[in-house]
Amino acid sequence: MSLSRPVIEIEQLIFAWPKHPPVLDLPNLSIQAGEQVFLRGPSGIGKSTLLNLLGGLITPQQGQIRLLGQPISTWRQSRRDRFRADHLGILFQQFNLLPYLSLLENTLLPCQFSALRKQRALNEHASLAASAQALLEPLQLGELLHTTRPVTTLSIGQQQRVAAARALIGQPEILLADEPTSALDADTRDLFIELLLSLCRLHQTTLVFVSHDLSLSTHFDRVLDLNQMNRCSGVT
Ligand SMILES: Nc1ncnc2c1ncn2[C@@H]1O[C@H](COP(=O)(O)OP(=O)(O)OP(=O)(O)O)[C@@H](O)[C@H]1O
């Protein structure tokens, strides 16, 4: 994948939550394949809203979002859901691990919803378990691969890394991360960031990472300040 190919494109986007004035008014923005972008801005400026738009969970009233060259913001919901399952990894502050599934089953969940991701996982490895292992080992969870312990009994840092492995299984082209380190202590957080960024680099995954913690921004290729980009006055 070439670094000069735009993977995320925004054109003259305006978004308002129902019955509210616009919260986002953004000019053109282009993020290239493999870029690692840190998205900052004060509370309430619209960082999570923008990630929801990029994830196709909501659509703008004006303008367009293209992911991998596809005009996803013009599509109906079912087509956006399909695209998200195939091409996006989503990693949020709440890990959203399923307590009744094992660590391995949680990691492989996206392969249940996307034949494309399952196929990609199997293209690289002899089995889905081996594909999960290839992510869990660098995330320092290899020893727990076959654990039958409920995932909710793992430490917060371990659960966060399971959520990262689940987001990256089957090589989605784009990873959207919203405050994924906020529940981690400083040492665990730094280790997590290093592992996440190196896995994204390895697979040329385009990363948009939202955090309040500006000290993390130095790890990234580009820092976007939503307070400067957003033509709405912002905090409502
Ligand atoms: N589902 C919703 N319905 C109505 N308004 C919403 C909804 N979600 C967010 N908002 C509003 O949109 C604005 C932007 O919120 P958003 O969560 O995107 O900001 P943020 O920059 O991520 O904030 P924080 O850093 O505190 O998480 C806020 O005024 C918020 O109250």
UniProtKB/TrEMBL annotation:
Top-level taxonomy: Bacteria, Pseudomonadati, Pseudomonadota, Gammaproteobacteria, Oceanospirillales
A Pfam family it matches: ABC_tran
Keywords carried by this UniProt record: ATP-binding, Nucleotide-binding, Transport
Q: Which GO terms describe its molecular function?
A: ATP binding; ATP hydrolysis activity; transmembrane transporter activity
Cited CDD domains = ABC_MJ0796_LolCDE_FtsE
This chain's protein is named: ABC transporter ATP-binding protein
Question: Has keyword ATP-binding?
Answer: yes
- Which residue ranges does the record assign to the ABC transporter domain? 8-236
Q: Which SMART domains does the annotation name?
A: AAA
Q: Which InterPro entries match?
A: AAA+_ATPase, ABC_transporter-like_ATP-bd, ABC_transpr_LolD-like, MacB-like_ATP-bd, P-loop_NTPase
Q: Which organism is it from?
A: Nitrincola tapanii
Which GO cellular component terms, listed alphabetically, does the Swiss-Prot or TrEMBL entry include?
plasma membrane
PANTHER family, alphabetized: ATP-BINDING COMPONENT OF ABC TRANSPORTER-RELATED, IMPORT ATP-BINDING PROTEIN
